[in-house]
Design goal:
4 copies of one chain form a homotetramer. With 365 residues, chain A is an alpha+beta fold. In chain A, 23% of the residues lie in helices and 23% in strands. In chain A, strands 1-2-3-8-5 form a 5-stranded antiparallel β-sheet, with helices on one face. The two termini of chain A are 27 Å apart. Chains in contact: A-B, A-C, A-D, B-C, B-D, C-D. Chains A, B, C, D: Keywords: Amino-acid biosynthesis, Aromatic amino acid biosynthesis, FAD, Flavoprotein, FMN, Lyase, NADP.
Chain lengths: 365, 365, 365, 365
């Protein structure tokens, strides 16, 4: 596996920079015979799209996805069926204000990849962060939409569960609230609190971190593989590859450090339908790297947006000390738009393991 | 990449079960010309070895490693030089009490991989957990020892920083304390507290979780690669593959969710020696997936040992409900022995990225 | 490695069908800082382009390549520098006469992939052969042009050495003849013979096979790796992946079967410049899977174009026996246009091994 | 994929040198539940084993294989069932006469990998060729035996079809002859001719090349995948990785260059059983990189053994010109023992594609 590819049998290779002509991805290994409409991809892209509320960057991108290969067009407009060959998806960049970035072309923005790209590659595309821009994640969301079609009985849902120090009350969790607010918040009572807080952050030209939770329900038991393709490992890898993510946990996660063996054990019984069931899900749906059939629960922490309006000390590529105040259009909390991205990474990872398991064990389908 | 292999240019494939004749690994891609003594591998294995104190499992394994290939023996005894061909390392299993496991051959131990292995594979090696046993991690420690030799200017050190609810006082951090106590604890004041606590846990037949911190110092800036080979992503993947790990974080990790952009920014200046330096290291040594030259800091959470002496409800492979009390020899806190394993995974991952970067950019050496 | 990707550090993923909107490739792992002009890619595409002479298909494609990512535009028009991020290249399909293929939508053309695709995938893109069309090879030629830039001191040249039973006289070999005729023939005396023969074949609606030889000169000794990344193995793999190729050989190839050890040995002496040299090159520049520094010589056999105007017996997808006469525009000898494709595969493979060797041994640059 | 591993879902990693303590391989991805007896692996190793006749090297190796992991021992002695975890196989080296190689420790044997290993790695294990020795192929034969168990309905058989200029008469082909002579010759009339010829070669201290043909019967249609995992490509890659192989061809192979489209077409009809059948098999069982259901036919050319008793000119590692006469025990025709190796590589490759296809399409089982 390499730099810009993830997955093994359901493989996604992404390409493109923030301010180039387009971004895109190639999905290799998608099974044949999967029918989808373009709108089924587009709807997920629209959830991640910038400019949707005052809490996210005001860059305006249509994020209209095109399917360039790997499908047969069906009689209905924008309806396709996969052929088993690589699916090339492309999104043209339309709203590129390269001039915004002129003055930081030579200065390293703290918290950004400017310095490290220059050290590694000797040069970088400074326009909008180039390849290190979160714009790349649009292609992951598109790939995730295809992955969902591959697993029609699995739901992949995400929510923002913490913004700064404000955590949701898990007892208020209501999935139907997610689409009622621009923050992917499942706790209706928390919404106004977060909104006021984020308004303050935005007006101050500041930013703040967040935590996202992603849950996959309906995943069959038996996916994943010891030892270096553990399902939790691959999910962690996928989530950690999202821009600005600094931590990932499964099930109890870091809280498990505080538990005893008795508290953490997920006991088992036989359900009324005669099938095994777990009495709890501290494990987050994964034991020994293999899915248990319980919901798979992952959380990831996103650092505050590095681009802020406060002057910070930094250096430029000539080794001069400078002070830098990032302009341009940015998200006060990149964690918000990370919700559909996290769902997509979870969907792609589980689709990949579904195919791998079918290959190795022949159990499924 | 596949089920039992990790790494790309420095590739490690492990094999073996807890109660088979041996366990081992093959290291593929190690550069030629690296000299080492067997004792330099053995000393890390000895740190991980069971039976070292009353806080870890009493299984007695010599864990004596043999080098079967990939080296030329040197004139001095147990001294070798790598040839660039695959290095096969083997550790024989000596203290296997298979009878201990007889009665759980058909019952699923809560928190273990018994159920999921049976679902996936239709059968499993129940003796000591088979492939899902942490015994496999001995081979990682051996591979990590070779990786360290490849990067002589980098130090990889780990410490236990939390046991149950007891966290060390970071102001007391003293690396030299690590080897003065059997708990890899860098805080001398915390050692007796943890010891008393773990004695209680052990006597109660219970177990508890923990958090390990691993730090790599001396890593050159520029290692890692966007987008799906981010250094933090690959470290997270490696650490999450360790048995019982439920969470991984880099630098500020989950705390970053609570910070503002101003608080989290690592500002830069030019040091007295004329080279760039960072005024803080919230990023944990990685920006945009690429190393900054600052120490790389990772933490991971380990759940409490699942094998406890308290009866728990579970089922057996015939779908019968049973109550199970795990016997055998086990660790009250598997987090302790996870310290050298975490170091090894960090070392292997960074060695791999060192070679990858040298391949792609030709910058190093 | 997967279905539509080749290479390890210099990785090429291709996508696209004959009659979709476009074809393209993503080159992942290209080192940063390589300057090139678009015309340096285009010139190789033009060599492979259909419609160049009466001996190749009359499909008219501009084959104009676009660079969508992975580069910084330079001040000069159509001049770029690579950034180390994935390079996305796209070629739009312009001359698609899908109607030509209407009647074979349900019939399996003998020698084509129609039947096997249908068995495997349950459906196929019958328009122009879909993904199985040699049109995909245009993207390889584009990737090969980038690979050449990475290795400025290596020349990759190919020639047609056999058409049907007519083999060139190797004593007449003159590389400068290659561009003087439309058949990539290095033997001026053979050109009129082949032209007459191919005219006959073309007029008869028939086709014929061919053999291509590709030579890389200037490859440093030491590239390639035992055991499953042998340089000859990877070259064979790359060449065998070209449509219609049925055999590959290195150096003496199948002739080696007839030689004795004495005849086949490449003896060594020290040259006047003090460096090792070989007195012959039966090995084709590779020993033990590793380059010797001598020219790397590979040949591959291409079967006759399967599309011919003679009626052949076949079946359709309903299991009915039918007789089929392929219409459409086709090459009487696909071997001709395979020359630049073979060069490209050789260039990509050697570029990949150059980076791999630099990664593992740090010898080069 | 990397240096010492082949396969994707059925992955084989080999390790070991000619004169180290042992050689071995790790098979990762073998499905669970496959029962086998040790003798079923051993019998293939015995076919490849040295010292079986006067026509092969007189090195005496028991080549006794041990299974170290990945299986559950069954009640019957030496009977096992696979568990889905990595299968580690080991063969100890017993007859190592390192002293034979003393004088060539510093000299480069023509046709061997001595020079190229030294250039690449800066040092090498000169004892018996180290890693470049064909001894490594014993581990492939062991892996191939497991692959055969995975595909019980497929037969993998090989034969020697050419020794020097002497080719078998294909009309005499009789598989039952293969085990009646020590040369894997399917043509009883050719056996005495080859024996006399090889006796002469052996007595002269010379060697000669050969051609091996391997046929897989019973492979279901639909295995393989466009574009860079074509079944013929992967078979070619596997066969070309065998020591001393210089050419590979599928079906008509190089002869296809001489055929017209009419001659080469494999026409189709519906058989009496209602299933599609081909009227010929010029394609060697593969169209568009995907199996047709017809026998898969591959041939490969092996160069003459490089170690001969005639003095040859060469250089040593100090750059001095020397004359070298290789001593030690060697095969007059390495092609003979290549037969079971070719079968093994074919079996592993097809097993891998079987699992891959099952993963991607879910068609099989």
């Amino acid at each position: 596996m390499s730099h810009n590819t993830f997955g093994h049998l359901f493989r996604v290779t992404t390409w493109g920079e923030s301010h180039g002509p387009a971004i895109g991805c190639v999905i290799d290994g998608c099974p044949p015979g999967i029918e989808f409409e373009l709108s089924e991809i587009q709807k997920y892209l629209d959830r991640r799209k910038p400019g949707q509320s005052r809490f996210v960057t005001q860059r305006r991108e249509a994020d209209a996805v095109k399917v360039l290969s790997g499908v047969l067009p069906q009689s209905e407009r924008d309806s396709y069926i996969t052929t088993g060959t690589p699916i090339s998806l492309m999104i043209e960049n339309t709203d590129q204000r390269s001039k915004d970035y002129g003055e930081i072309a030579r200065q390293y923005r703290p918290g950004h990849a400017d310095y490290t790209y220059d050290v590694k590659y000797g040069l970088r595309d400074y326009r909008g962060g180039g390849r290190s821009s979160a714009r790349e994640t649009a292609t992951r969301v598109a790939a995730g939409a295809i992955a969902r079609k591959l697993l029609p009985n699995v739901t992949f849902r995400g929510a923002l569960v913490q913004v700064g120090k404000h955590r949701i009350n898990r007892e208020n969790w209501d999935w139907s609230e997610i689409d009622n607010n621009p923050l992917f918040c499942p706790d209706a009572e928390m919404v106004p609190i977060w909104e006021r807080y984020l308004d303050d952050i935005r007006k101050a030209g500041s930013s703040v971190g967040a935590v996202v939770e992603v849950i996959a329900e309906g995943v069959p038991a038996g996916l994943g593989a010891p030892i270096y393709a553990k399902l939790d490992q691959d999910i962690a890898s996928g989530l950690m590859s999202i821009n600005a993510v600094k931590g990932v946990e499964i099930g109890e996660g870091f809280s498990a450090a505080e538990l005893t063996g008795e508290e953490n054990a997920d006991e088992m019984r036989i359900g009324k339908d005669g099938t095994p069931r777990f009495l709890s899900n501290h494990a987050g749906g994964i034991l020994g790297g293999i899915s248990t059939g319980e919901p798979i629960v992952a959380r990831f922490a996103i650092k505050p947006t590095s681009s802020i309006l406060t002057r910070r000390q930094t250096i430029d590529q000539d080794g001069q000390e400078v002070e830098l105040r990032t302009k341009g259009r940015h998200d006060p909390c990149v964690g918000i738009r990370a919700v559909p991205i996290g769902e997509a990474m979870m969907a792609c990872t589980i689709a990949d393991h579904y195919l791998r398991d079918r290959g190795q064990t022949g159990r499924l389908d």
